Amino acid sequence: MARPALEVADILRDHGPAWREANSGHMSLDQLKVMSAIERCRTAALGGYVARCENAACGHTAIAYNSCRNRHCPKCQGAASRRWLADREAELLPVPYFHVVYTLPSALRDIAYQNKCVVYDLLMKAAAETTLAIAADPKRLGARIGVTAVLHTWGSALTHHPHVHMIVPGGGLSLDKARWVASRSNFLVHVNVLARLFRGKMLAMLMDAHDSGQLKFFNTHAGLAEKRTFKHFIAALRRIHWVVHCKAPFAGPEQVLRYLSRYTHRVAISNRRLVAADNTSIAFRWKD
Fold first, then answer.
1. Residue (of 78, 49, 83, 76) closest to 65 by Cα position
2. Beta carbons within 10 angstroms of residue 71's beta carbon
3. Could you tell me which of 93, 126, 146, 101 has the C-alpha nearest to residue 257?
4. Above pLDDT 70, what percent of the chain?
5. Distance (Å, whole) CA 252 – CA 178
6. Which of 145, 153, 106 is nearest to 129 (CA)?
7. Which residues lie below 8 Å from residue 221, measured CB to CB, with a gap of 6+?
8. Bridge partners, residue 255, by sequence
9. φ, ψ dihedrals at 173, nearest 5°
């Protein structure tokens, strides 16, 4: 495979040292490790091996350097994605699948950024519990279902945008586990029903996390550390519409897996999206 004309590693090697110096004290150890891994990936710094043709008349020699295998490296995710895809194929059911997306409102994104571990965990839990609860409701599907969910924290333009992509089968086991309950062929549940329950669960979880001291607030959000202020903040979020999408079933299980595998192993930006870079700016392709 031909090497792209411009890679994320090239940019980090050229500008990473100066950027780290300028942001000293504002980067975590994990972030520094990721940058170092990408910069060293498939270079002599990680070692490698020599392949030489055994034919004396040829004697062609090629040097291949080792990969960093960091999950954030654009060059190291292809193989992992293929393995994940193969593993999930054995789990597919011969039924239609729906694509459900749960998105945090913009007012919560800064809070999530300052409390990634806690809020991302709550986001995944709230999304899963909402889907399972609505599906089990006898007035809806009335079935026990399974889901595959993937957390995504950025948008195409590399803006912070926490949301959960979920693949949901069009049916499940009856509550007594005696039979299969199928959904309608082109409808799972109305998005407003999902949105209301998701909003209620997420806000309740955030209040509990605040009460137990799990949330930290900085800069312009420092005042939210006070319980009354945070309660008013949460109350305002109960009055706005939360965005949940529930798309019609995919064309088939293979398409489901291909779609989801791109999200499970997609890094923030791939090498193929890079257009140009200089000392002041970086240009890359993105989709609105």
1. 49
2. 12
3. 93
4. 99
5. 26
6. 145
7. 110, 111, 114
8. none
9. -80, 145
- What angle is formed at CA 153 by the lines to CA 131 and CA 260, rounded to 5 degrees? 60
Pairing of strands 61-65, 97-103: unpaired
pLDDT digits (tens, 9 = 90+) for 68-104: 888 888 888 777 778 888 888 888 888 888 999 999 9
Q: Angle 78-89/253-264 helices, nearest 10 degrees?
A: 140
Residues sharing a CB contact under 8 Å with residue 234, sequence separation 6 or more, in sequence order: 203, 206, 207
* Identity of the residue numbered 145: I
Please report how the helices 191-211 and 116-136 are oriented relative to each other, as an axis angle in degrees rounded to 10.
Answer: 140
Provide φ and ψ at 155, rounded to 5°: -100, 180
Residue type at 1 in one-letter notation: M
Cβ contact 225:214 at 8 Å: no
Residue 205's φ and ψ, nearest 5 degrees, are -65, -40
Q: With residue 116 as reference, give the H or E element that holds it.
A: helix 116-136
pTM of the model: 0.83
Greater model confidence, 113 or 249: 113
Residue 242 has pLDDT above 60, yes or no: yes
More confident residue, 255 or 213: 213
Residue type (1 letter), 247: K
Give the whole-angstrom CA distance, residue 206 versus residue 149.
20
Dmax (CA) of the chain: 81
Length in residues, the chain:
288
Residue type for position 196: R
Closest CA to 169 of 193, 141, 205: 141
Residue 219 backbone class (left: φ over 0; alpha: ψ -120 to 50; beta: rest):
left
Q: What residues contact 91, with CB distance under 8 A and at least 6 apart?
A: 148
CB 115 within 8 A of CB 88: no
